[in-house]
Structures are given as structure tokens and as C-alpha cells.
Amino acid sequence: MPVKGAIKSDYNAKSFWFYPWGKSITHKGVDIFAKKGTKINSSTYGLVLYSGEINMGGKIVLVLGPKWRLHYYAHLNELKTSSFSFVNKNSTIGTIGSSGNAIGKQPHLHYSILTVIPYVWRIDSDKQGWKKMFYLNPIKYF
């Protein structure tokens, strides 16, 4: 669990691959709600590939972890790490916020796990079901 002090009631266990979900079409992660400024720790050890800002995700951190998995943390208030630094499960990488397309919404962390090695057996007929070969359900790892 990347959000310090978060418990099961702080996220919806059925939100992964929820349809419809705004511009994203399908929700490819989990939103973990907490008070603005709550610490976010890396959920894995790895290399920070990017720490910065993008349009939809706002302030984000992208960590390359074991098994070639990308851990994506979005809508942060503050960034507490930098690109090309190494992190572990004790590393604070940012704080809860509502940046990007979450401006005006309740502060939360959008957390996704992607694999760069396609899991083709996971493709199904859901909306954007072909993308399931890349997106893993992060709730299974809490």
C-alpha cells in the first residue's frame, strides 16, 4: 500500500477496469483517497524513470520495478523524488493531491501497475480489453 496509513475503506476494490471512466474510457488503476499532503511511499524498489508533470496525471512519479513492471503514481501534490534516482519501500516519493485532471476533486493517489512484457493471455472482450495484457490490478498486491 503506497499511501501511508491507508486502509481498505480508502479505495474501491471494484474500481480497477471500471467502465465508463471519463477520458480514460476504462479505469486502469485504483484511486486511494487520503488527506491532502499524506505521504506516498514507493510500493516497490526500483529506478524512478520520471518525476514531473503531465496533463492528465498532473504531478506523477513513474518507477521501473522488478519483473519489468512500471508503477505509476498520479495526481500528487508534491514530488519528493527525482528522475533517475533509486527508491525502495521506505522511500517517500510524494504527497497526496489532486493535480492534473483531478483538480477540484477529492485528493487521492491514482496508482497503476503496467508490465512492459505483454501478458497476451489476459486479453478479453471488455471495453479496451486488449490493454489488459499491459495493466495489472494493483489491488491484488496490497
Structural features, described:
It is a single chain. The protein starts with 29 loop residues before the first strand and ends in a 6-residue tail after the last strand. The mean pLDDT is 93. Strands 1, 3, 4, 5, 7, 9 and 10 form a seven-stranded antiparallel β-sheet that branches. With 142 residues, it is an all-beta fold. It is globular and about 40 Å long. The protein contains no helices and ten strands. β4 (58-65) and β5 form a beta hairpin.
Describe how the helices and strands are arranged.
Layout lengths: L29 E4 L5 E3 L4 E9 L3 E8 L3 E8 L1 E2 L6 E2 L4 E4 L12 E8 L19 E2 L6
Gist of the model:
The chain is an all-beta fold. The chain has no helices and 10 strands. Strand 3 and strand 4 form a beta hairpin.
* Helix/strand order: EEEEEEEEEE
- Number of helices, counting only DSSP H or I runs of 4 residues or more: 0
The description of the largest β-sheet is: 7 strands, antiparallel
**Helix amount:** under 10%
Distance between the first and last residues' Cα: 5 Å
DSSP strand count: 10
Structural class: mainly beta
Rounded radius of gyration (Å): 14 Å
- Average pLDDT figure: 93
Q: Any low-confidence stretches, pLDDT <50, length ≥5?
A: none
Keywords:
142 residues; mainly beta; seven-stranded antiparallel sheet; three-stranded antiparallel sheet; globular
